[in-house]
Design brief:
By secondary structure, the protein is mostly beta strands. It is built from no helices and 11 strands.
């Protein structure tokens, strides 16, 4: 059974940093694409950053380029999202997701999801 557990969310001031973690189990972690998505109140879920195992590429949404960094540690079966220079508009529930392929960084391509972790950025 695929399991994803996010952690690291919380309240942070604008300009601060936060590191999210995603602990994974139940699938070949190094072979599947990994993504971080977020959903703000009243909005749809958007792809923040993804690692494609298909071609090794990394995607970042324009709104987070230069501020967020995605990484993974195959030895720990974990993925991370380092978030720097946080802005109030980054406030959202952040989800980790995985998929055997993950064609691109859109939720439609991801089949397995964690429960999410809330990040609130105060101004």
């Amino acid at each position: 059974e695929v399991q994803l557990v996010e952690s690291g969310g919380g309240l942070v001031q604008a300009g601060g940093s936060r590191r999210l973690s995603c602990a994974a189990s139940g699938f070949p972690f190094g072979d599947w694409s990994i993504g971080w998505f977020r959903q703000a109140p009243g909005k749809g879920r958007e792809g923040v950053s993804c690692i494609s195992r298909r071609d090794g590429s990394t995607y970042y949404a324009d709104s987070v380029k230069g501020r967020f960094t995605i990484s993974s540690d195959n030895a720990k079966n974990s993925a991370y999202l380092q978030m720097n220079s946080l802005k109030p508009e980054d406030t959202a529930t952040y989800f980790c997701a995985v998929d055997r392929v993950g064609v691109d960084c859109r939720e439609i391509w991801y089949d397995y999801w964690g429960q999410g972790t809330q990040v609130t950025v105060s101004s």
